Amino acid sequence: VISQPAKILNFLRKQKYNADYELSAKQGADTLAYIALLEEKLLPALLHTFWVEAENYCSVTKPWFASRIAFPLSLYLPGKMSREALNRILLTRGGPPLYSLTEVEAQIYRDAKECLNLLSKRLGTSQFFFGDTPTTLDAFVFGFLAPIYKVCFPRVQLQEHLKQLPNLCRFCDDILTCYFRLTVSGHSPGGQDMADANLQKLTQLVNKESNLIEKMDDNLRKSPQHPPRKLTTLKLAAGGEESPLNRLSP
Amino acid sequence: AEPWPENAALYQQLKEEQILLSDNASSLAVQAFLQMCNLPIRVVCRANAEYMSPSGKVPFIHVGNQVVSELGPIVQFVKAKGHSLSDGLDEVQKAEMKAYMELVNNMLLTAELYLQWCDDVTVEEITHPRYGSPYPWPLNRILSYQKQWEVRRKMKAIGWAGKTLEQVLEDVDQCCQALSQRLGTQPYFFNKQPTELDALVFGHLFTILTTQLTTDELSEKVKNYSNLTAFCRRIEQQYFEGHDKD
């Protein structure tokens, strides 16, 4: 996961087209910095909400993932991902003076809330982070925020905090309506199944970022090189396992 | 708030024989920050500084009857005493500053740790001899191996264990390029006044440029960006001239 910033800046420098066509060098650097901030401050809390928090894990995440993975892997894989998430949280954030899991949890949620506040201040009133057209940073932030915003968990302190930041909610809704053909309430033409499949893809975004960015990279290399159109709507195939961002290129 | 006492001290490991690249960088960053705030501090070297620290990491400062470790908490502590470098920044700039500080911690510090503890050549020739040097055998080997095991576990958890040295150096290059592009032709990252970001970047880059390692590849990556080397020289001249070069 940490290799993402490198791949992204590489992508920005070598391609210089597509989503980051109009970014200056400084904005490219800012992208890298904000991604590092997200990974350091927001990712632990996100991992915790999805994979470690017992109620959330048992009632939502595990059945969701298990339902899409073939038996018998479905018995083993969610548990493994949960253990890895906890491991990562404890190793990166769990040193002294935080000695118990509850203290670590309190700290990571504090950091995540601060991170959300910082993002909100940075976004301000603009539509996207660098003006009127979406860029890699917008995709990244959306990948982190959308699962928090949309997935219905029993324990939702992060979601509640996010809802208090109206510009971030508006940002997520904009991208959802424009690129995912969902209405804000979450019901799509394909019905509740499609909404579930879409939400699951968003969750996979958090866990499979590297695949995502590589596919985007390939796709955009193959596409004709020209500046992006503003906010085209796209069709989503139902039930496909590919990531939604794959479809951003013409 | 209480005034800053005269006998404030910063603790780190022994400078000549023991301290490693990453700890030296962190310590230098804190020293630069305190110099920029005009707060006098003396550097005390102790072999067991790591164990004395409340969070297990160096450096830590002992001010009055309080002990605070690591740059983040020290910045907060100093702010509570009424000194701050980032008050003049607006909200968006503060967000940017925090993001860039995370970038440095995420990439540069992790790369330094990787180089010292996961690259076998460096580990054998530099890290192991230095880390345990104040202690007799077999304690020195045991402590080194224990620390190495701990760092490697962490690297594995964040996905760096699978990286090769070339990939790590590539990451350092990306990070330096981002910093260089952000700095541009300005004297400091937020134009006229230095902030904690400048202190942090200085700490890491200066240490990388001046530490003798088995290869020069790491410092070469930084030297590619002339505005970064000029930045380091400027801060060194302004804040460290006439003091001991720590």
From TrEMBL, chain A:
Domain Mitochondrial outer membrane transport complex Sam37/metaxin N-terminal as annotated: residue spans: 2-81
Family per record: Belongs to the metaxin family.
Domain named Metaxin glutathione S-transferase: residues: 112-175
Annotated transmembrane regions: none
UniProt KW keywords: Membrane, Mitochondrion, Mitochondrion outer membrane, Protein transport, Transport
GO biological process, one term: mitochondrion organization
Cellular compartments per GO CC: SAM complex
Pfam families noted in UniProt: GST_C_6, Tom37
Entries under InterPro entries matching the protein: Glutathione-S-Trfase_C_sf (IPR036282), Metaxin_GST (IPR033468), Mito_Protein_Transport_Metaxin (IPR050931), Sam37/metaxin_N (IPR019564)
Xref: CDD domains: GST_C_Metaxin1_3
Major localization listed first in the record, in broad terms: mitochondrion
Annotated region (Disordered), positions in chain: 218-250
Top-level taxon of the source organism: Eukaryota
Compartmental location: Mitochondrion outer membrane
Keyword match RNA-binding: no
Name under which the protein is recorded: Metaxin 3
Organism (species): Bubo bubo
TrEMBL record, chain B:
Family from the record: Belongs to the metaxin family.
Domain Mitochondrial outer membrane transport complex Sam37/metaxin N-terminal: 27-147
Domain Metaxin glutathione S-transferase residue range list: 173-235
Entry's localization field: Mitochondrion outer membrane
InterPro entries reported in the protein's UniProt record: Glutathione-S-Trfase_C_sf, Glutathione_S-Trfase, Metaxin_GST, Mito_Protein_Transport_Metaxin, Sam37/metaxin_N
Assembly information from the UniProt record: Interacts with MTX1/metaxin-1. Associates with the mitochondrial contact site and cristae organizing system (MICOS) complex, composed of at least MICOS10/MIC10, CHCHD3/MIC19, CHCHD6/MIC25, APOOL/MIC27, IMMT/MIC60, APOO/MIC23/MIC26 and QIL1/MIC13. This complex was also known under the names MINOS or MitOS complex. The MICOS complex associates with mitochondrial outer membrane proteins SAMM50, MTX1 and MTX2 (together described as components of the mitochondrial outer membrane sorting assembly machinery (SAM) complex) and DNAJC11, mitochondrial inner membrane protein TMEM11 and with HSPA9.
Residue stretches spanning the membrane: none
One protein family per Pfam: GST_C_6
High-level lineage: Eukaryota, Metazoa, Chordata, Craniata, Vertebrata
One cellular component term from this protein's GO annotations in UniProt: SAM complex
GO biological process, one term: mitochondrion organization
Keywords assigned by UniProt, alphabetized: Acetylation, Membrane, Mitochondrion, Mitochondrion outer membrane, Protein transport, Transport
Name of the protein in its database record: Metaxin-2
Described purpose of this protein according to its UniProt entry: Involved in transport of proteins into the mitochondrion.
